[in-house]
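Usage

Read records sequentially. Each one opens with the input sequence:
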Amino acid sequence: MRRPTRCWVFWALTGLLLPLWAGCGGGPAGTGPEAGRDQGAGPKLLFITNSNADWWNAVEKGMDDGGKEFGCQVQLRRNNGDTQGQVDRLREALTLPGIQGVAVSVIEADAPGVIDAMRELKKAGKVVIAIDSDVAKDFHDARQAYIGTNNVKAGEAAGKAAALLRPKGGKVAVFVGTAAAANARDRRDGFFLGAGDAFPQGQSQTWEDGGDHTKALTNVQTAVTRDPNLDTLLGLWSYNAPAIAEVVQGSPKLRKQTTVVTFDLDEATVGHIERGDIDVSVCQNPYEMGFQGVRLLKALIDKDDATVKEVLPDGETRDTGVRVIVPTADSPVKKLGENVITIEEMKSWLASKGLKSS
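and closes with the structure output:
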């Protein structure tokens, strides 16, 4: 159970915006203010997602713990997987009373509207960072730092795992919400780099779902129906994992034929890995993104250079790392090294943080 929180609600009344927040849980995008928590009189920080996936629950928990640790008031706003929705939430941050820092998972790395809105926030004196998914290299001026996964390296880990599971290679179908997102691009490119020539990128097809979980499932069904020669199914965003697993578990023939490689660990994904519907999942550390995001925003606002350097050992970025999750200890993927753990070991870590997904 969440600890009680003090709630703010803001309303437009006679043209005036009352300086109040809402803070009673993280509902779906488009339902108004979400997930605001009062951890003291410190700075107000706003986190904006790229989608409404369960993955963000772990970021939210990290934010909550970071807010308590560093004396900040934190709020999570969930986007619906739409670029304009993210633009609207970024511009709304200009009008919300007292917001000093904003962290955003950039839905499209080079979307002009998103980049412009981030620059507007900086011009207005807000501290702006990217988490989870960064802006493209040409637009690094729009944010002050990036905290999240090195997605090229994460993709390479997924590719190397696929090569161990399927040494002869295979034909790959890629599933993702938005292929233009920086994390999607990097994971896809990293996968084929790590997998090697036996998994030709030129023969792969990418299926986008725009953050629609129903379409994510339909895309998998359509892909395996259209191309019976597919033998590697790659899910780049967290909710793509259960979508793929639901399709393959319904067909023993398909499951035997295919290698399933995914990212992250939605609550539903945990059970699918335990049952063997997924061969390997490269799991990020969203909890750490939320926690360190709060820490960095606070340090930047306070001009605490020593803490900024601790959070950002590489200058403008912090790689929060990955774990590679396998069903059992006898998986061939264990050859990749110490960052490969079983789903049971991962469940123990989740329980230590009070989480069910990551």
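Summary fields computed downstream for this record:
- Confidence is low (pLDDT under 50) at residues 1-39.
- The longest strand covers residues 99-104.
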